[in-house]
Amino acid sequence: xxxxxxxxxxxxxxxxxxxxxxxxxxxxxxxxxxxxxxxxxxxxxxxxxxxxxxxxxxxxxxxxxxxxxxxxxxxxxxxxxxxxxxxxxxxxxxxxxxxxxxxxxxxxxxxxxxxxxxxxxxxxxxxxxxxxxxxxxxxxxxxxxxxxxxxxxxxxxxxxxxxxxxxxxxxxxxxxxxxxxxxxxxxxxxxxxxxxxxxxxxxxxxxxxxxxxxxxxxxxxxxxxxxxxxxxxxxxxxxxxxxxxxxxxxxxxxxxxxxxxxxxxxxxxxxxxxxxxxxxxxxxxxxxxxxxxxxxxxxxxxxxxxxxxxxxxxxxxxxxxxxxxxxxxxxxxxxxxxxxxxxxxxxxxxxxxxxxxxxxxxxxxxxxxxxxxxxxxxx
Length: 379
Prior knowledge:
Elements: H1 5-12, H2 31-53, H3 59-76, H4 81-90, H5 92-106, H6 112-124, H7 129-149, H8 159-172, H9 174-183, H10 188-195, H11 213-231, H12 235-246, H13 252-255, H14 260-265, H15 269-285, H16 291-301, E1 307-310, E2 314-317, H17 318-338, H18 344-359, H19 366-378
Antiparallel strand pairs: 1-2
Helix pairs in contact: 2-7, 2-9, 2-11, 3-5, 3-7, 5-6, 7-8, 11-12, 11-17, 17-18, 17-19
């Protein structure tokens, strides 16, 4: 079984990992947000590649390898990227052994097959087309961050060398990136996704760590993926569920987050917002994508929490995504209390979310996961 609270907490801890922390930053940049941005960019790159070349990527493999690389980065923590990549190149077996041993220690009940595949991936260096898409997405997300901090750090020693290194990696993956750039107008969609890194969750209360809308979306996506693996869903449903979960809060880049109590208690507001969101998505976001990707994007993004089926695009298990959206929010509230930062808003929110999780009827044991989170918080 892959769904495991120890694993979820390992992923959540990436919200505490600060990127570019030896540079001046206009906002906090975390590893969780970087991985979320990378996952969204990988979808744009991968689908652009498929549409232009007529080939099909193995999206189950791409999502799994993205998770493996994410876990590797969480374990290896704050090593500077040039040194990190040099260590990987020169000591791949040792790095793979260390990462898998750390994950085994921290997630002792994790499926052995998953660990075996992760170790094989880390040792292999990732030579598949799917791995090329992941690496290209990684460097585009890194470049986005670098462009954000560059002007403030012009006097920093080595800043121009850092730019050259990033641009060299971008050039190394130019065959994939060029396809996307030919099919899209600039990087508007990538920039728009990045704006969700600016939007904090739970804006009415202090909280540690202060996760963003985009980071939250990645947690929901990986929870959905893990449950889909446990349930044995087909490849197309797994793809649909993962990217629906990843993009489920995308409309908030246009409307900002309207908290649930407001939507629930102002008559008709929830339905009105849904209508406005779809209208704004159609006018502002959908046109950023090539024509031949728009229908699928609509299928993934609109009405994310409903059970849906389509003759072309398959099935989305929306109610399950809602369960993990609730679980991710519950973890945000409970982990803040664990770190010693709480408020009436967080306590009330935690209690409401726990009640919802106990009421859901799903193949996952949400009550057991919450009990496991209490165990983690007592360590």
